[in-house]
């Protein structure tokens, strides 16, 4: 018998207290506030499916992309690689050449793997969840140490490229998108936070967490004591812990969306 979706989510996150509305002050008893909002900080294209998944659990999703992505072009004369390496789905558009669809594509994360397959790549191998996992997979899968195309965002991937070169790979590191942090919270997110309507905020990367915290006003930062932060990994949680006022910081049991949503529970 197929298990219920709720049971699957419950198993994906360590047991935590169920999110509930905080008690209201006496002068607010006649003006109830629904604390069922969930702010989602990731950029498109992952934003839309996450919004839908959060809504499907009964929460009110609030879009607040804190990283703005600018696509960059890959040089037309880039040599055909022996394998393509992706740490983010943001790179897929730039490297999506039909003549390369048979090139093995090694990626981090199941969502990125699915997007690569939809784009037309026929040999997609997915690492568990981090760039270190991906590097270990490459070392095991490619003993011949061929030519790799490491397609990353500007400012990303230098350490990975150096580590792979030290292992004997010929690495072409190419920046195929640029990331710019948002300077302030989007209006809907700011209004919901100010009104006490936000129960939780989802953070999928360290840079997103850093951008969110940097964008807060002092007043907004002071409101985080009533909000649960949900982090995809311990590294993301460490970035969030620089603000001590969170109601709670929860770390997903695995670096994927199902485990993130499990940390939300039910409204």
Q: If you had to describe this structure to a student in words, what would you say it looks like?
A:
- InterPro entries: 4pyrrol_syn_uPrphyn_synt_sf, 4pyrrol_synth_uPrphyn_synth.
- Residues 53-261 form the Tetrapyrrole biosynthesis uroporphyrinogen III synthase domain.
- Strands 3-8-7-4-5-6 form a six-stranded mixed beta sheet.
- It has 267 residues and is α/β, with parallel strands linked by helices.
- The two termini are 27 Å apart.
- The protein has two domains: 34-66 and 184-262, Rossmann fold, CATH 3.40.50.10090; 69-180, Rossmann fold (3-Layer(aba) Sandwich), CATH 3.40.50.
- Residues 1-12 and 14-32 have low confidence and may be disordered.
- It is elongated.
- The protein has eleven helices and eleven strands.
- Helix 8 packs parallel to helix 10 (234-240).
Separation, N- and C-terminal Cα atoms? 27 Å
Mean pLDDT: 87
Q: Could you describe the largest sheet, including whether it forms a barrel?
A: 6 strands, mixed
Helix content bin? 25-40%
Low-pLDDT stretches are: 1-12, 14-32
- CATH topology of the largest domain, anyone? Rossmann fold
Identify the CATH class of the largest domain.
Answer: Alpha Beta
Secondary-structure element pattern, one letter each: HEHEEEHEHEHEHEHEHHEHEH
How many structural domains?
Answer: 2
User: Biggest sheet: strands side by side, in what order?
Assistant: 3-8-7-4-5-6
Instruction: Write the CATH architecture name of the largest domain.
Output: 3-Layer(aba) Sandwich
Shape: elongated
Q: Beta-strand level of the residues, as a percent range? A: 15-25%
Instruction: Determine the structural class based on helices, strands and strand pairing.
Output: alpha/beta
Oligomer: single chain
Number of helices: 11
């Amino acid at each position: 018998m197929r298990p219920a979706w709720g049971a699957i989510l419950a198993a994906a996150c360590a047991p935590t207290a169920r999110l509930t509305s905080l008690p209201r002050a006496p002068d607010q008893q006649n003006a109830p506030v629904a604390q069922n909002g969930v702010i989602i900080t990731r950029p498109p294209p992952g934003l839309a499916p996450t919004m839908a998944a959060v809504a499907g659990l009964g929460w009110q999703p609030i879009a607040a992309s804190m990283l703005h992505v600018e696509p960059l072009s890959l040089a037309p004369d880039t040599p055909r690689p022996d394998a393509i390496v992706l740490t983010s789905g943001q790179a897929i558009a730039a490297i999506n050449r039909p003549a390369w669809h048979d090139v093995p594509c090694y990626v981090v994360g199941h969502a990125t793997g699915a997007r690569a397959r939809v784009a037309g790549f026929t040999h997609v191998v997915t690492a568990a969840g981090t760039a270190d996992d991906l590097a270990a997979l490459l070392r095991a899968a490619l003993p011949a140490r061929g030519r790799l195309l490491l397609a990353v965002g500007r400012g990303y991937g230098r350490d990975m490229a150096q580590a792979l070169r030290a292992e004997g790979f010929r690495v072409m590191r190419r920046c195929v998108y640029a990331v710019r942090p948002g300077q302030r919270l989007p209006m809907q997110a700011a209004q919901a936070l100010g009104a006490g309507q936000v129960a939780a905020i989802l953070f999928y990367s360290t840079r997103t967490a850093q951008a969110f915290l940097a964008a807060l006003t002092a007043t907004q930062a002071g409101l985080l004591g009533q909000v649960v932060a949900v982090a995809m990994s311990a590294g993301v949680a460490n970035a969030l812990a620089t603000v001590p006022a969170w109601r709670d910081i929860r770390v997903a049991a695995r670096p994927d969306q199902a485990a993130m949503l499990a940390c939300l529970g039910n409204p």
